[in-house]
Amino acid sequence: MKILPIAASILSLSACLFASTGAMAQDTQSASAPIKNIVLVHGAWVDGSGWKPVYDILTKDGYHVTMVQEPLTSLDDDVTATKRVIDLQDGPAILVAHSYGGSIITEAGVDPKVAGLVYVAAHAPAVGEDESDLGKQYPSYTLKQPGAIKKTDDGYTYLNPADFPKDFAADLPLKQAQFEAQSQILTGAKVFSAPMTVAAWTTKPSWGIVAADDKIINPDLERFYYQRAHSHTTVLAGASHSVYESRPKEVAAVIEDAAKHAQQ
């Protein structure tokens, strides 16, 4: 007469174990699923439109991609603009930056929604550091050229349009590089000397792309950044500072690798 209650207890226990195992499997599957949200941050003197070749690849592959159009007026303003876009994401996101944008994501990347960072020929200073001082330790080709970087009377910088094609975009079609030279976003000089107050790469996984022929940022400085951050590093031989435009397939592949592995 006691068999039925015992059987019922066994069935109940089995159901609980099954439900628990199923939930654990679901959680594991969710945790290892690729991240679908990608946020792209541009650097100095340009805007987000340069990301279009990478955007096209990522969206074709099923990712939800958003570009930040930061004002380039101060590091605080640019971080705020980036956080505003991060807040719009419906789940975890990979934060990607080019050039000065690396300083922006180093600050903004501490946001809980950010699962990983991708630095594309980008700066990655530590707390208390700024990219201007680091650039002096690893001077770039452009920094050594008198008159290459210009400044307005009210403190905004731009790259000499005559130097832009060969320094910033040597591997882009000349007409495209010339257009970008004449459509620069003037960038506040103070953004380059603003020290980091946090460094997201100390707590978040990161990926880094070295543009081996970069004349704007010394490739050795890029290597230093990524080695220090223990970033998964890719070196693209022959790539200029405009690597995100000239080598979109390779850049998109690194971003997708980050999206697949950041939460593992």
Automatic annotation (TrEMBL):
Stretches assigned to the AB hydrolase-1 domain: 38-254
UniProt keyword annotations, A-Z: Signal
Sections of the chain in a coiled coil: none
Keyword Methyltransferase: no
Record-linked PROSITE patterns: PROKAR_LIPOPROTEIN
Record has DNA repair as a keyword: no
InterPro entries documented for this protein: AB_hydrolase_1, AB_hydrolase_fold, Sec-Metab_Biosynth_Hydrolase
Signal peptide: 1-25
Domain of life: Bacteria
Pfam families (alphabetical): Abhydrolase_6
PANTHER family (UniProt xref): AB HYDROLASE-1 DOMAIN-CONTAINING PROTEIN-RELATED, ESTERASE_LIPASE_THIOESTERASE DOMAIN-CONTAINING PROTEIN
Protein's name according to its UniProt entry: Pimeloyl-ACP methyl ester carboxylesterase
Organism placement in taxonomy: Bacteria, Pseudomonadati, Pseudomonadota, Betaproteobacteria, Burkholderiales
